[in-house]
Records
---
Amino acid sequence: MGVTYFKRYRMEIDLTRPLFEPPVLPAGYEVVGWHESLLEAHAAVKFQSFCLEIDANVFPCLGERDGCSRLMREITRRDGFLADATWLLVWRSEDRRSAEYCGTIQGVLDSREFGAIQNLGITPRHRGLGLGSVLVHRALDGFRQSGLRRAYLEVTAQNTGAIRLYQRLGFRKARTVYKAADVAYA
Ligand SMILES: CC(C)(COP(=O)(O)OP(=O)(O)OC[C@H]1O[C@@H](n2cnc3c(N)ncnc32)[C@H](O)[C@@H]1OP(=O)(O)O)[C@@H](O)C(=O)NCCC(=O)NCCS
């Protein structure tokens, strides 16, 4: 094992300006609001979304099923947890016989009155359909409904697809931060 420093960007968005137009939700998908009973569904989607991604090195808990449950419990028990900025996506087949959870986002209020997006994840086979953009829009709208004027998220610099997406949605890089993580060398 050795310590690696991952470069990350804090990206911010001004909530007092009009938000981007959200993509239309494709047929079969539904956005579901927060309820305690959905904690494990959020955790399972988080794990499936992150386990093979760079962020599972930066935050090892994202690469473990139990770690994702712990993280969800920790986020939802924080004083600043915002149910209105926390959403789950479900997909149902046309005949309604099969269904799966496929997207998650969580929002919290930080000490400086910023809305903070925690983890946005879409499971691999549902990517590229605009679902990530839909969830970001729901979270930002939830922040606005709670009276917040600014929001931010942090993204690993190597996650270029996600950075491009956030820039397209109106987020701007505000600061560079470094996150130390223990990484196993091959
Ligand atoms: C980033 C992520 C949430 C995007 O979700 P999505 O539903 O595919 O997003 P949308 O369809 O609204 O937008 C697609 C954009 O995301 C980008 N993207 C990033 N990673 C992608 C991936 N693995 N597959 C498909 N698109 C991806 C695409 O490049 C595309 O941008 P482009 O049109 O400029 O090429 C999703 O890829 C994901 O869950 N990745 C793994 C977890 C992660 O890194 N989350 C972000 C943490 S800050």
Note: The chain has a mean pLDDT of 96.
---
Amino acid sequence: MLKVIPIPALRDNYIWCMYDTTTKHCLLVDPGEAKPAIETIEKLQLNPVAILVTHHHWDHSNGVTDLINKYDVEVFACDENKIPGAKIHLKDGDEFLINKLRIKFKAIRVPCHTLDHTAFYTPNLVFTGDTLFTGGCGKFFEGTPTQMFNSLEKLKKLSLETLVYCGHEYTQSNLKFAALVEPKNIDIKNRVAEVDKLRSQQLPTVPASLAIEMKTNPFLRTNIPDVIKSVEDCFNKKFNSEIEVLAALREWKNSI
Ligand SMILES: [Zn+2]
């Protein structure tokens, strides 16, 4: 059986560890630092076989060098020049097999937060790094609102049972903003209560299903009249496309 566990790292990052409970083979996603990953590997007596890196930011990739020096692992990323040890340049839709875990992933290219940003999908979960957060989305550091819109549209097409594993524990603050955008949305209210309870016990709020995200994440709801109205009221102007609504939502969240 494959199990996925979070390894808390740095201030609020999650390194995801997927492992086979029988063979103990494991893969790591976004090791921003090596130390907590090695501690978990040793504690659970795991045998790392692969590292997946969603994007080049240091808090997702700084641990890679130490890990490849210590373990015999394959590194998968989109930009082989930015990620140490990555040998394959993943393109959108590329599939790759991790033999020892008997699992196949599909690379979904989701540029905007960074241009090399890639999500990794296998039924029914997706590692989304800093593109799609539970309750929010990443900052548009290297790309355009159009790129982020197209990236989120790709993720929205996955099946609704898909569990979203993102790179940070940001859900609580993301949902505060979601509630500001949609004060009447009962699904957001319920999720806020659920997340507050989890955080009060220091438990992770990630993953969440895409079904929940579609009901509560304003960045996936740029076609919903209440969201459009709220953004238009905030900026006191009309927007002509979902991309404009998305750009304004991001600007609004950046400002608070
Ligand atoms: Zn990032």
Note: The two ends are 43 Å apart (CA to CA).
---
Amino acid sequence: MSVTKEQVLKALSNVQEPELHKDLVTLNMIKNVAVCEGHVKVNIELTTPACPMKDQIKGDVEREVNKIDGVNEVEIEWSANVRQTPQSRMFLPGVKNAIAVGAGKGGVGKSTISVLTALGLQREGAKVGLMDADVYGPSIPKMLGLEAEKPSVRDEKILPLEAHGIRVMSMGFMVEPEKAVVWRGPMVHGVVQQFLSQVDWGELDYLIIDLPPGTGDVPLTLAQSIPMTGALIVCTPQDVALLDAVKALRMYQQLNVHILGIVENMSYFRAPDTGHEYDLFGRGGAKKAAERLDIPFIGEVPINIDIRVSGDKGTPVENFEKTDEATREAIMSFVRNLAAQVSIKNSQQQAPLELKIT
Ligand SMILES: Nc1ncnc2c1ncn2[C@@H]1O[C@H](COP(=O)(O)OP(=O)(O)OP(=O)(O)O)[C@@H](O)[C@H]1O
Ligand SMILES: [Mg+2]
């Protein structure tokens, strides 16, 4: 007896999406099933191209479909459709998810983590924008090698610059570098509002927003202006940084901004010659804090000379191509975990779509 599509769908309904905790059929992730004698082809649509669970899903699908009598080959074709945070379209047309990258303390690596996140997601195939909302000390233009650039204006909209495959907007494009910008609260509010309403971001899966340190006017304005998907908290392992990170986290919670998780930057140092890992600042503090606060731990990024040098030179791609494999893996692991948290957040608010099988 030949294998039927119904049998395959039934088998697929036994496969759980490991993080969304529902089966692939219910989640409308199965876009097509084709059967040709013993050969089964399944099209699976992920909720992010940066899905950390792809290998597990692949293994589970192969196992379940292979249980059907008569199946001798399972082929999977992947696609991705990033889900949108509800209401986002009303405020930022085209932007599916706005993610704030914040911290309590200065210098812990918010801008670095913002750049790595944006580029990591782009390299996985997502459409990404990066908004430098650090109006006091914008560092994104330098980190991306865009210091001499100026955005253009079309139809009264500011067009973000394009760099390394991501769209970028920064106060640093508007004011001369090294000229200290002194802003009062209402002016900060105006500038952030302008960035949100007058920049033509186009279609984006993720807009990463790099924040200034602390719990001041910028996060407040953002939280009041747009329905963000959530905030990523960056900290280093030292107690003082953790203490400030918790303060920032509480502020977001008070502003009703969802916490996507916490990432530990400069977590450890890996000696390039021996591979030995040194816990310079007491690695693991952020993970413990995440457990205590019951928020997701997104990952840890080592202190690495390539990360610092590429930030100074404006060559962020090197972090994904030149730096050592262990560091690259650590970066991609946190990027994928963050993407998964975005999918989880969105799936909690959305009813499954209608199932269509052709
Ligand atoms: N994992 C890392 N390894 C090596 N250097 C790092 C790492 N993370 C950040 N740095 C370096 O530390 C410095 C501060 O980082 P960054 O500017 O990203 O911090 P920040 O939190 O955005 O600072 P600010 O509060 O001023 O906005 C930069 O020189 C950056 O290159
Ligand atoms: Mg910064």
Note: The pocket of magnesium ion (ligand 2) is lined by residues 110-111, 134, 139, 210 (CB under 6 Å).
---
Amino acid sequence: MNVAVRPEDAVSHQPLAAPFLAGFRSLLSETTGTWVNWEGEAPSWLSGDLLRTGPALFEVGGRPYRHWFDGLAMLYRFALAPDGVAYTNRFLRSESFAAAIDDHRVMHGGFATNSDSPYWRRVMDPVIGRMTDNANVNVFKFGEDDFVALTEVPRAMRFDRQTLATLGALTWDDQLKSHTMTAHPLRDAWRRVVYNLETVFSVPSLYRLTRMADGVTTREVVAEIRVDHPAYMHSFAMSRNYLILVECPLVVHPLRMLLRSGPFISAYRWTPERGTCLTVVDKDSGTIVRRCLAEPCFGFHVVNAFEQDGTVAVDFVAYPDAAVVGGLALDRLRTGARQCAGMLTRFTVSLDTGTSATSILSDSLLELPHFDWRRQTGIAYRYVWAVGQSGAAFINDLQKHDLRCGTIARWSEPGCYAGEPVFVAAPEAEAEDDGIILSVVLDSQRHRSFLLLLDAATMTEQARAWMPHAIPFGFHGNHYPVAPRAQADG
Ligand SMILES: [Fe+2]
């Protein structure tokens, strides 16, 4: 074990006002290949790595970051075997990390925390493409075995899959310049490309949909859509033939964004009178096929989308408004219970008439949705796994939604707070839920986290492996098989 961060870099730990706040305490230690045995019985076929990223240092020089989304990124590797897990965690050695540790300053503006740079520098940084490299949102595999950590800007950070050593920023082999890029690229197994959504703040501004072939880092433009007030979009949707934007009415005037003195998200305004705009774009021609309005709502995550009977269905985790954005600020979280999850909502767009319909698929609160994305992305699917907020101050349980039957199966344990459930299909699986769910769970009473392994069909526990410390609440990750595979891994 080595300690990368001095304890004085973090705020002294006060007694917690609520148990879930243990998930927002900084994790200062790193460990390499620490072996822990499963308690219980993991499947004999279990192998590969669960790779994750998430914020883990919530202070700079003793001063707190403002928002959960701004903590400095830690990478995690859970190397899986039938008898146990080899656990590794390392801070992403980004410019942001170095400035925070060496100089006690916030180098790049984040989601809701300003940089410590003077105003002119904050304005110039996006113009010259100098943006945050604190990639704490998601991990993705480009090409054969090239892993990157992502945040919401076009600056992907490469890392070594085995050691989690930071390898530097991914170099784009193109001339495209943009200000945001989602941390949720979508891999199209039919076309063997990766799509993403970027935003260019200008007058007018642009939504830019790009595609990138396997094995290269050259982005091609699929479509550029002019927009007067760009919306904050954390993710987008993909069906077999279409890319779909879910444009919630949390929008920004581009000049307000470019000339802002405050943090990124504070420039946006909630404007429910605009409604939620659904834009269906043909993947191959880049033309807008349909554009229609739905009732105003806010959300971070598209679950999946598919075409059926002349319609495109888009499943989305929807909130009534954008209050959750401010509600996840660290000082707000520390003052009491928040709604931290939304409702599973389906937008259905008629390709014939261009009209939309909205239906609530479940009134159970959920977030961080997952499904069998390797086999079901872009096509009709049945199961969604997610974290849920069931009578607790923070997201706590794990849920399996059966979209066909409308039923929900759950896992929970007192004092425990579960992270994103990652589905791993069993070898030769036929049923959509034949496999396991992996989730990093914080036990607030034992002050430690464990990797939970559930039967994905029944949501019953098969095994758990205790980690050497409490792991702060993170966002996203994925399971990757041991050997590089040419098919649809991403
Ligand atoms: Fe996300």
Note: The helical segments are 95-103, 119-127, 254-258, 323-327, 330-333, 373-376.
